[in-house]
């Protein structure tokens, strides 16, 4: 049973994790001089070393064998690794190509897309409020599509890849950090190959030989630290969800796309006109309905045991 101190610690760690995720566009923007594929490869390389070191320290040398011994784990984590690798690649490219606002839209849509996948693949049933939330978000996406002549494909691709990733991880039901460790192991060699190829073909600049052009020690350090910034929020998230109700975590998750959106508009000065505002408002109202419904459901579920106990007294 978690104590009040555990709950407070989990709450603050969850907030810190979502704030860090929300401010990541500022960090990736510092690496704008580095090609996006190189950033992703370094992100995989250094986060793999950190996560694997953590798992070796925590679970010993048999952690990988134990993880892959689960039924379906090998192929499902391989597929989820491809999805998260695609998500990271598209996100970093979008940030450094000036699409932070649209990227934030993807993570606003994501929770609603999760419930749609739950209906499609897990035979879950939606409440009337959840259907209204999904309809409002769909209306927002359709509005943006008709006003700008094409769907917000960056947002949809980010939301869909992350939702499918979450579905696979839900079906497998493996610890978040262990799952990330296996996925990272799968991605490690391709990432290393990308880095070696880039260095040998003049597209890299990490710790170059004397006289060769490079990105400089400052950017090299940022690339290494980027691996830690990939792993630490997820480790913090895994710590928090064991100590904080999921309904609370579900509300806190909107911190990240909100900060991304504010960064895109007020720091990077990306376009956000009235047409975009209308589309976002539909989606924000849908999210408000979804979040309120979730909070009311959680309150009813927590009140039910108390009512039963009172009836028995």
Automatic annotation (TrEMBL):
Pfam annotation, one family: EamA
Membrane among keywords: yes
Domain EamA: 10-145
Membrane-topology annotation of the record: Multi-pass membrane protein
Domain of life: Bacteria
Gene3D superfamilies hit by this protein: 1.10.3730.20
InterPro entries for the chain: EamA_dom, EmrE-like, RarD
Compartments reported by the entry: Cell membrane
PANTHER family assigned to the protein according to its UniProt record, in alphabetical order: ACYL-MALONYL CONDENSING ENZYME-RELATED, SOLUTE CARRIER FAMILY 35 MEMBER G2-RELATED
Family according to the record: Belongs to the EamA transporter family.
Full protein name: EamA family transporter RarD
Source species of the chain: Lysobacter yangpyeongensis
Gene that specifies this protein: rarD
